[in-house]
């Protein structure tokens, strides 16, 4: 032992040699508390003892403390690397060794030891690494690569030249080109390279994130792949120029045109006629017709039938002047006219399951879905109208016609006006100018839903005080209601809230924000939580934001009773 070491330090070293590592750690801790001790040596010894006890986090702290205290002492880097290897973090250990070699001067006497440890660890890691593409059978290697996205495949190619050559030898990996999530704009030479690599056999192309000056050339290269089945264009480009490039594409099953491509309604008809295999079509900027046609000529140019179409998603996001008239899908709900004129009753949309029509700003004055058909002389009792086998119907900015609710198929899963209504358990209609008390009554009596959630916030034509909740008391439509929101109705007062208290025994959450209720409503619902009666609601949450007549005492009272009062 060195005579310069303190007694506690020497005792710690002796205990370490004898295998009593716990006692050694305590002795080294005592030595550190002394002012004249060899701090670096003590930390180094304690780090070794902690490693023996497998207390790696504490050991790592001591090693890093050595580095922080004296950057030109190799012991901190060696100990830190040792702990990281024991923690099975060899890559982190290599980083520490590299950092140490940068910190130690060239003539340092122990620099060679650090270099040796670094090289030994590197060699050990190399022995455990194998190129999967040289070991796996070709079929398995292809199965692995098939799990990666287009962007990931592009990253894998940058690993090494061997991987790049291997991936280039598999043409099927280049059948799908997707620039979603590209970190930078994709120049047209890259598009040309990908198209050439696929040998013009692209089946899937999602074109976005292009610089404007590359759009035309990029689309020209993509248009050389006539076998495309999935085509998405999210670029700023004129529709006429785009249509000219992709005219004659007969294999397209999925077509998406982004909001920067304005598609006239009559051109939409042409798209449907030319791409007869279409299953899904989504147009995010559908404008008015180039030449408005009077009824019934608006159906001119419409395909005779659309047997493959499963999904239609049409949106208009422009504030035209005069306003763009929402597109009416011909023969959607009046097949009897066709039967009368053509002698047979075709099914125009036999497989249509999803229909989304979104007009913004809203066209509230027009019935743009159902009853928008111009054939006003049609007798609705002649042949019962019906809709395609829809599973999902979404209407935004459009007023449903009188027959809309009656015509919906019994198997519909999602129906949305302004908010989602999935599986007929949730009805959320907020800020809808067309929604009235009569609409709600008609909806409940027609659909017979079992609602759990009902939200009717800020609907200007809906008067909650005119809706007779007692007409539906005990009915399946509202009997199991747990979440109710009636916000922003100034005619709601404590007396009205008492009616809600009487009718909804299962209610758990109630939103009466921006109403005229007072603290009496809070007290009533709070007291009910401790009631033994099963006929009153045990409310968990009461939302009363912007209710000016509620005092802080009432809020505190409700919270003391366990009611979550949100203000």
TrEMBL record:
Keywords: Repeat, TPR repeat. GO terms for molecular function: Hsp90 protein binding. Residues 130-177 form the F-box domain. The keyword Repeat applies. SUPFAM superfamilies: F-box domain, RNI-like, TPR-like. TPR repeats lie at residues 5-38. Pfam families: F-box-like. This is F-box domain-containing protein.
